[in-house]
Design a protein that fits this description.
Layout (H helix, E strand, L loop, with lengths): L6 E4 L6 H8 L5 E4 L4 H8 L3 E5 L5 H12 L7 E4 L9 E4 L7 H23 L4 H8 L3 H4 L1 E5 L5 H9 L3 E5 L2 H10 L4 E4 L5 H13 L8 E3 L13 E3 L4 H29 L13 H18 L3 E7 L5 H14 L5 E4 L4 E7 L3 H14 L3 E2 L10 E6 L6 H16 L1
Parallel strand pairs: 1-2, 1-3, 3-4, 4-5, 6-7, 6-8, 8-9, 9-10
Antiparallel strand pairs: 7-14, 11-13, 11-15, 12-13
Helix pairs in contact: 4-10, 7-10
Protein name: GGDEF domain-containing protein
C-alpha cells in the first residue's frame, strides 16, 4: 500500500522490537521519538501512523498525544503496543505475541486503509463546508454496534460495560451470532466466556475465511491468542469488563468510522440522495420518490403500501439501528427514510396490504434484540401499515398511516 508520510514510533528508552519489524517490512521511513519529543514530531512530520510502546508510558503522556492525534485530519491511526491500562478512545490496542509482528503489520495496513478512505472523502467534500462540518462532528462510537457473544459469568457485566459506550446486540450461541452477522451492520465482536477452545477456533476460522468479516474487530476475553488467523483486528483483552469495553472501543470505533465513510461515498455517488448514517434516502429524496411512485401506481395500476416503524422517543439509537436494518434487508424495489419524529417510513412497491403486513412483521422481528445507549431496555418498534386507495394522494396516504399509528399507540 502506498503511504503518505512516515511512521513514528514512540518509546521511553531503547528502540522496541516492533520498530525493527516495521523496518524489515519496508513500511518506511520509520522515525523514532521519545515521549518528550512525540508531540513535536507529530506536528512537524505529518505522519501516516503513530505507534507507541505504551507499557512504559505515563498516562498523561499518552492521553495528551492521543488528543493531539484525534484532532488531526485526515484520520491518523494511533496503535498502543502492550497497553498497561485503559486506553484513550482513539488508541488501538495491540498485544504482542511471541515476537511475531505479522498481526501488527496487518493491523497497521487496515488502519492505513481507513486513513486513505477518509482522505478520499475529504477531497471530494472540498468546497462543501456544511458537509465537511457534519463529517467532523460525527462520533463513530455513538453509532457503533457491537455483537456480544457468550453465556458465562461475565456476560451480564460485559453487556452493561459495552452498552454504556455503544449499541449492543447479544447472542448466547454462535449460531445466533451468525444470524446477526448476516442481517445487521456489526462494527465489532466481543467473544465472552462459555465456549470451548475448539468451538472458538472454528468460529474464528469461519470469520477469517469470509471477506465480509475479515476486518471486523474481534475481541477475545479469555484464552491465548493464536496468530494464525487472517484477522488483522483480532485481540485478546483479558481483564475486568469495564477495561475490556474501554480497550475494545478504539478498534470498534475505527470500524464504525470506516463504515460511515463508505456510506458517505455512496451518498456522494448518488448525488447526496442517501443518508450516510442509515443508508436510506434523505427525507427530501424520499418525498419526491413517494409522490412519483403514487402517481405511477395510480396511472398504470398495481399495488403500493407504506409501513411506519415508530421507535421509542426515549431511545434515540433505536431509530438509527432500525434504519440500518431496514436499509440492509428491504427489497431493492422498496425505499425508505428516517423521519424527524423518530420513525422510519418504508414504501413497498407492487405490494398489497396483506403482503406488506407480512414483510413489516419480519423486518420488525429482526429489531428486537438490540439495546440502545446506556443500560436502556430493548426496544421493538410499533408498526403500522396502510395501502394506496384510488382516491389517495401522498398527503392523504401518510395522514391515514399516521392516524393508524395513533390508534395503535392507544
Amino acid at each position: 500500500m502506498s503511504q503518505q508520510g512516515p511512521i513514528i514510533v514512540v518509546s521511553r528508552a531503547k528502540r522496541p522490537p516492533f520498530a525493527s519489524a516495521l523496518d524489515d517490512a519496508k513500511l518506511f521511513p520509520v522515525i523514532d521519538a521519545n515521549w518528550a519529543d512525540a508531540s513535536h514530531a507529530v506536528a512537524q512530520l505529518a505522519p501516516a501512523a503513530v505507534l507507541v510502546a505504551s507499557t512504559d508510558a505515563v498516562d498523561p503522556g499518552l492521553d495528551a498525544l492521543a488528543g493531539q492525534i484525534a484532532a488531526t485530519k485526515p484520520y491518523l491511526p494511533l496503535i498502543a503496543v502492550d497497553p498497561a491500562g485503559p486506553l484513550p478512545d482513539n488508541a488501538i490496542p495491540f498485544a504482542q505475541s511471541g515476537g511475531n509482528f505479522d498481526r501488527l503489520l496487518a493491523r497497521l495496513r487496515a488502519a492505513l486503509r481507513v486513513r486513505t478512505l477518509h482522505a478520499t472523502v475529504l477531497r471530494r467534500l472540498d468546497g462543501d463546508p456544511p458537509a465537511r462540518a457534519a463529517l467532523d462532528d460525527t462520533d463513530p462510537a455513538r453509532d457503533a454496534t457491537v455483537l456480544l457473544i457468550g453465556r458465562g459469568g461475565n456476560y451480564p457485566s460485559l453487556s452493561v460495560a459495552l452498552g454504556e459506550r455503544m449499541g449492543v446486540v447479544g447472542a448466547l450461541s454462535l449460531e445466533a451470532a451468525a444470524k446477526h452477522l448476516n442481517i445487521r451492520d456489526i462494527d465489532g465482536i466481543v467473544l465472552g466466556e462459555g465456549f470451548t477452545p475448539r468451538v472458538e477456533d472454528a468460529f474464528l476460522t469461519v470469520l477469517a475465511e469470509d471477506a465480509r468479516f475479515r476486518n471486523l474487530p474481534v475481541v477475545l476475553t479469555s484464552g491465548a491468542l493464536a496468530p494464525a488467523y487472517d484477522l488483522p483486528n483480532l485481540e485478546v483483552i483479558s481483564c475486568e469488563p469495564d477495561r475490556i469495553a474501554a480497550n475494545a472501543l478504539p478498534l470498534i470505533r475505527q470500524h464504525a468510522f470506516e463504515t460511515y465513510l463508505g456510506r458517505m461515498l455512496k451518498s456522494m455517488e448518488a448525488g447526496g440522495l442517501l443518508d450516510p448514517r442509515t443508508g436510506l434516502l434523505t427525507p427530501s429524496a424520499f418525498n419526491r420518490d413517494f409522490v412519483t411512485a403514487i402517481s405511477q401506481t395510480l396511472s398504470h395500476g398495481g399495488g403500493l403500501s407504506v409501513a411506519r416503524f415508530a421507535f421509542d422517543a426515549g431511545h434515540p439509537r433505536a431509530q438509527l439501528d432500525g434504519g440500518r436494518i431496514l436499509s440492509r434487508l428491504m427489497r431493492q424495489m422498496d425505499f425508505g427514510a428516517a423521519q424527524d419524529d423518530g420513525s422510519v417510513l418504508v414504501v413497498f412497491a407492487e405490494t398489497d396490504l396483506r403482503t406488506a403486513h407480512s414483510i413489516a412483521r419480519r423486518l420488525s422481528s429482526v429489531m428486537r434484540h438490540t439495546s440502545h445507549g446506556k443500560r436502556e431496555a430493548q426496544s421493538e418498534p410499533v408498526v403500522t401499515v396502510a395501502t394506496l386507495l384510488p382516491s389517495d394522494t401522498a398527503k392523504s396516504l401518510l395522514a391515514r398511516l399516521t392516524e393508524e399509528a395513533r390508534r395503535a399507540a392507544c
